[in-house]
Design a protein that fits this description.
Blueprint lengths: L5 E7 L6 H6 L7 E6 L6 H6 L5 E3 L5 H11 L4 E4 L4 E3 L1 H11 L8 E10 L2 E2 L8 E7 L4 E2 L8 E2 L5 E3 L4 E3 L5 H21 L7 H18 L6 H30 L1
Parallel strand pairs: 1-2, 1-4, 2-3, 6-11, 6-12
Antiparallel strand pairs: 4-8, 5-12, 6-7, 6-8, 9-10
Helix pairs in contact: 5-7, 6-7
Keywords: Membrane, Transferase, Transmembrane, Transmembrane helix
Organism: Photobacterium ganghwense
Family: Belongs to the glycosyltransferase 2 family. WaaE/KdtX subfamily.
């Protein structure tokens, strides 16, 4: 018997080609699914309406603010924040159900191990060797309001790690990966500039990119994921380099 209710929150825009696996992975375990769509021009909204009647079409204020809007609509004891390009594997679904059946849950939040899946391969190392905080007790939790790379600030208490994988289908194809990397780099530049973070010059931007590659490919053993692991490490290195170059250029504009 489940002793705790679960709200699932999702934000979308033009995700018709991949939102259904996401929703299929949670529909059997969610007490409510809340979708905020920021103006899809494909049939994303229609697909979501097959799984929930709680779909709201709204503007786009940035990732953090949009996810906070979704959280504000949630009524469950616990909240799972999942992206349209993600899905729970069967092990994680079972572990989540078991958690909700407990009379007393030990933690106030859980990190979900990421299973980055792209170019036909689910990575085990490199960028996949991390877990993201996506499951948390609703009361007392909030999102940071960052434009990109927002995080959950859970209620006070300890954080556990859920069994299984949160499968993350990051790119539709290589071209989509390039577009997404450029978008995130520029949003990161703007976020850092707004917060007063300094670039410290282009040489440091280059060194940051090199460090990112070393961190993902060597320290996190991305090389064990073969050629796809190399591509991922190079992609994230380029993103970090571009982010600090963008920050440097924003500084030049401000000082001109």
């Amino acid at each position: 018997m489940r002793r705790h209710s679960l709200s699932v929150i999702v934000i979308t825009k033009n995700e018709a080609d991949r939102i259904e696996p996401c929703l299929q992975s949670v529909v059997d375990i969610a007490d409510e699914i809340i979708v905020l769509d920021s103006g899809s021009t494909d049939n994303t909204v229609e697909i979501c309406q097959r799984y929930t009647d709680n779909v709201t079409i709204t503007d786009w204020p940035g990732f953090g603010k949009q996810k906070q809007r979704a959280l504000d609509k949630a009524t469950g004891d616990w909240v799972l924040s999942i992206d349209a390009d993600e899905a729970l594997d069967e092990t994680m679904k079972s572990a989540l159900i078991a958690m909700l059946e407990q009379e007393q849950i030990e933690h106030t939040a859980y990190r979900l191990p990421w299973g980055v899946t792209l170019y036909g391969k689910t990575l085990k190392y490199g960028r996949s060797a991390r877990s993201v905080l996506r499951l948390f007790k609703r009361e007392g939790a909030r999102f940071t309001l960052d434009e990109v790379h927002e995080t959950v600030v859970p209620a006070p208490g300890s954080t556990g790690v859920m069994k299984g994988l949160l499968l993350h289908y990051t790119h539709r194809d290589y071209g989509h990966g390039l577009d997404k990397a450029a978008k995130y780099a520029w949003l990161g530049s703007q976020k850092y500039h707004r917060k007063g973070k300094k670039s410290h010059g282009l040489v440091l931007a280059l060194l940051r990119g090199m460090w990112t590659f070393f961190h993902i490919y060597i320290l996190r053993r991305g090389f064990l994921d073969g050629s796809v692991g190399f591509i991922v490490a190079m992609t994230y290195a380029q993103v970090n380099f571009n982010k600090y170059v963008g920050l440097w250029l924003l500084e030049q504009e401000k000082n001109a």
